[in-house]
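Bump. Still looking for Ubiquitin-like protein atg-12 structure tokens.
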Amino acid sequence: METETATTPTGNTEPTAAASAEPPKSDKVTVRLRNIADAPVLKNKKMVVNPTDTVASFILKLRKLLNIQANNSLFLYIDNTFAPSPDTTFETLSRCYSVKITDKEILELQYSITPAYG
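Sorry for the wait, here they are.
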């Protein structure tokens, strides 16, 4: 790591670390899925997604896994209460709604093919 010097407001010079060229390593987001009502059951209920993935892209992946056609609905819910916006990233959802289970942060989502709440 290279060091540079910076001048403080009092006129002294202090060594500072140069900015790293690599972006900070982003962790994956672990998602646990649970079906509601008459939605098909997934074989693997845990998925790992990139934090930059959006809810809309995740719904497309989930549609393929569940063999749900484009003309049928698929609803996602958080905490059995509300649907996240399609343009929300999993980084935001994870920061706000993840729960800690055995030293791992897990985002719990519920899915349904019919409106379940409201």
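The chain has two helices and seven strands.

Edit: fixed formatting.
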